[in-house]
Queue: 4 jobs
Job 1
Amino acid sequence: MLDTHSCNHYVSSAATYPPHKHIHTYLSQCPDNLEYVVAGTQSLDGIVMAEDNWNPQDLITKSHEAKECSYSPYSKFRVGAALLTADGAVFTGCNVENACTALGICAERTAISKAVSEGHKDFKAIAVASDMVESYISPCGGCRQFMREFGLEWDVYLSKPDGTFMKMTVEELLPESFGPNDMERKKAVPLKNSN
C-alpha cells in the first residue's frame, strides 16, 4: 500500500485525458484523498483547479511537496515546482541531478516538460520552492529561457519554506528576451561565398 505522501504525489504529478487506466488501483490505495480528487473539475490523475478561482497558495504548497522528491545528492539543494496550465491542470516537478553535472535538470523544466508531453502548452502560473529561508528561490537563466518559450505574460511565484512568496511575470524575469517570434523576424541576407 502507498503511503500518504506517495498518494499525494501521484495525484499531482501528471494530468492525463481520459482518466488513467489505473485509477481504481489509486483510489483503493488512497481512500483519504478521494474527496479531494473528486472535489472539482479534474482528470483523476491530476489535480485540476477551477480556472477562475485557483489560489496561488495551493500552487506554492504543491511546489513544496514536489521538492520532497528532489534527487540532489551532489548539491543538496532541493527544488520543487508546480505548474498550472491554462485549462487548470497542475504538473509538478523536482530537480534531478546527475554525476555528469551538465545532464541534471531543474524542477521548472521537469514540470514544463511533463505538461508539454501530455499536450499542454498554455500556462497560467508556476510556483517554485526550495529550502532557502532568507531569500526567495529564483529560476536559473536556463529555466527562464525555457519558460519564455511558452509566453511572457504568465506568472511565476518565487517562494520560501514558510509559504511567503514574490510574484513576477516571465517577462519581468527575462526582459528583452529571445523567443519563438524572433525566429520569424526578417534576417540579413547571408553573404555569398566569393570563391
Job 2
Amino acid sequence: MAEEVRHPARQVPQAIVYSIPIGTIGGLMFLLPIVFTLPDIPTLLAVPGGQPIGVMFTLIMGSQSGGFGMWFIVFGVGMFCAISICCAASRATWSFARDKAIPFYRIFARISGDAADPSAVPFNAYLLSTTIQLLLGLIYLGSSAAFNAFVGVSVICLGSSYAMPIAILLFSGNGREEMKAAPFSLGRWGFAMNVSALLWVSFEIVLFSMPSVIPVDQVTM
C-alpha cells in the first residue's frame, strides 16, 4: 500500500504513529464500560465456539436488541478492517506476482485497466487473496479450536513482521545513525521506542502461544 502513497517515506510513518493514539482512545472508550459491566466469567467461557461477544453484549444490555446494537458497532468496525486487510493482502499478492515469486505470476501481476490510471487495481491478485481468506474461514465449520489457532498464529506472524525490521535497525551496526537523515524521525525517543516495540512483540508472541483454557485437552489445544 505504501507504493500508492504520494510521499511514502513521510506519510506512511505518520499514519502508523497517528493510529496508536487514535486506537488507544477509541479502544478505551469502548472497553472501559464493558470491563465495569462484565457478566459472569464462567458463563462467557461456556459459550460454544469460544466466541462470547454476542452473549456478553446481550447480558450487559439486558435485551437482545441492545446486544445486537452493541454487536453491530463491532461488526461495522470489522467491516472497515476487513476492507483494509483485503486491500493490503491484494497489494502484497500483486507485489509477489510482479517479482515472479508465486506460481502463475503472469496472471496475478496484471492490473485491471490502464496501469497509469490511479483507479486501476490488481483485480486478479485481489480475487486470489480473498479466495484464500474465504477458504481459511471454512476451517471454523470443522474445528473452532483450529480456527482460533490460525487467528493466533496470524497475530504472531504479523507481530514478527513488525519486529524484524526494527531488530535489523537496532542490531545492524549503524542502523540508527543512518535513520537520522530520514524524512520522518522519532528523534531521541527512537531507540527507546524500538526497544519497547521488540519487548512488546516478544511478550505478544508468548501470550498468543498459550492455550485459552486450562487444563488443555485435545479439543482446546
Job 3
Amino acid sequence: MYFLCKIGIIGGTGLDDPDILEGRTEKYVDTPYGKPSDALILGKIKNVDCVLLARHGRHHTIMPSNVNYRANIWALKEENCSHILVTTACGSLREEIQPGDLVIIDQFIDSNSLIIQRYWEKEEGDDASDRELFVTDKSGWFVHLFELDFAS
C-alpha cells in the first residue's frame, strides 16, 4: 500500500538535523506572515518526500515565544505538504508514559499568551476552543507509515 504524501516536519531540539534527509536541498522562502524560522530543507526519508524546518532555527537562536508559527505553517503549505508532524519535548504525569516514549496527541493546552494563535481575526462570539485543532485520521496511515518505512 502506498500513500501519496509530502510530510512537513517542524523539528525542535533533536529533530532538526538535516542529515535525516536523503538528497537534501535548501530553500529560503518568504510568506505573508514574514520569514519562517529557517530555510526549508527538502529531501526524502525512506523514499517519502519530506520538508524539514527547524522551529528554533538551525542555530537555536529563536526563543519559543518568538517563533513565527504562522509563517512556518504557511511555508509548509506552500511547499505542498499534505501532512505536518511537529515534535515537542515535554513531561507527563502518567506513570505509563516513560521518557523516550512517542505519544501522538489529539489535544493540548497552550498557555503561552504571547503567541498569535490563529490565522483569522477573532470575531464576536468566536472561540478557538470550539474548533477542532487536529484532523483525526481514522485510517491509521501515520502508524502504518512508521511500521512500513521508518521502523526498518
Job 4
Amino acid sequence: MVLSPKESGKFIAENSKHVKINNEGIEKLGEQLVAEINCGALTINGFSQTPIHPTAEDIWALDWIFVVDTLNYCFWSKENEVGWTVDQETGYFALCKAINRAMKEGVDILNPKCYASITEKQLSKILRSDNEVQIPLFEERLRCLHEVGRSLLENFEGSFANCVGQANEANYAGRRE
C-alpha cells in the first residue's frame, strides 16, 4: 500500500511512539511561509535556485542530487551545542557546500565507483567542518554511500541515470497494462 505524503504524515502522527508533532511549531512555520510568499521573498520560480545547486545545464546534476539526497538527513545537534558547519552554513546547505568543495578539490564524489568504497578518512575529509564538529551520524552516512554505490554498480551499470531510466520504463509499462 502506498500512502500520499499527507496520509503518511497522518499515519506517523497517530501511531508513532518516538516522534511527536509540534502543532504550535507547524502553525508558526505556516504563518512564516505565508508572510514570505505574500511579501515576494519566497516564490516558486526561485525556490530551489541557489548558487550551491547545479543548474539544468550541468551534465552531472542528476548524480549530484543523488549523492546529496543520499546524505541529506538528520543534521541536528544537541541544544546549546555547536553544530556542524561548512562555510558558515549548517544542515543541508553545509552538505551542498561540502560536496561542491570536494568536486572543486578533484574528488570524484559523484562516481559510484568512488563512493561505493570510500574510506572513513576520505569521507571525513570531504565532510570536514569549519569548527572541528563532525557531521552527525557520520558512520551511517558512510554506510549509505557504500550501499547505494554498490547497488548502482551491481544493478544499473554504475549509473543513477540508468536507475531513473529503468524506473521510467517500469512506470510506463505499468500504465500500458
